[in-house]
Amino acid sequence: MKKIQNRLKRLEGQIRGLQKLLETADDCEKIIIQFSAAKSALDNCYALLLSENLAKCFRNKDNQDLEKLLKLIIKK
Q1: For 51, which DSSP code?
Q2: Are 73 and 57 contacting, i.e. CB atoms less than 8 angstroms apart?
């Protein structure tokens, strides 16, 4: 979980930077690049969280939690 927390803290900084870019009406290209970077960082964080939880379910042979996770994934 520490890896995920660290990634979220970095992502928080990216979002703050993006907000500043928007407030100053900076270059459109910079804004789009920052949006893309933040989206990618969030997707990677989500994938890490998902894989860690799936691995935990498999290790514990917890079929109920595994089914819940799979349902959440399929909703996406």
Answers
A1: H
A2: no
Count of alpha carbons within 13 angstroms of residue 70, beta-carbon side: 9
CATH number at residue 46: 1.20.58.1000
- Report which of 22, 14, 59, 19 is spatially closest to residue 40, judged by C-alpha positions: 14
Q: Residue 66's domain spans which residues?
A: 2-75
CA distances, 34 to each of 1, 31, 42, 47, 53 (Å): 25, 5, 12, 20, 29
DSSP output for 20-39: HHHHTT--HHHHHHHHHHHH
Query: Helix-strand-coil percent breakdown of the chain, rounded to 5?
Result: 90, 0, 10
- Per-residue pLDDT tens for 18-59? 999 999 887 889 899 999 999 999 999 988 888 887 777 777
